[in-house]
Amino acid sequence: MISDEELNAFRVGGEKVRVVRDSEKSNDVRGIVVAWDEYQVLIRRPNRNVVKLDRKYFYQLASEPRPDLFA
User: Fold this and answer.
1) Which of 5, 11, 24, 49 is the one with CA 20 to 30 A from 40?
2) Span 5-60, pLDDT tens digits
């Protein structure tokens, strides 16, 4: 699970993050961290929709290469 400090760094930096949910690259969510609580994170996507995601997913900067977590 991602820590509050990491989420705050993403929010303050304002950079896009990638949320890896499963092995399919097309299912990744990209956007900016807006808010979070104990269990969920709000991500604002480029089309300005907000998505609520579980904190158990893998979060990273979108500019970094996608990891192969499910190999």
Assistant:
1) 24
2) 999 999 999 999 999 999 999 999 999 999 999 999 999 999 999 999 999 999 99
26 φψ region: left (φ > 0), alpha (ψ -120 to 50), beta (else): alpha
Measured between alpha carbons, how far is 47 from 39 in angstroms, rounded to an integer? 24
Residues present in the chain in total: 71
Instruction: Name the CATH code of domain 4-61 (choices 2.40.170.20, 2.30.30.100, 3.40.50.150, 3.40.50.2300).
Output: 2.30.30.100
Which residues does residue 50 pair with via DSSP β-bridges, in sequence order?
Answer: 44
DSSP code at position 56: T
Please state the pTM of the whole predicted model. 0.90
Q: Cα separation of 66 and 52, whole Å?
A: 21
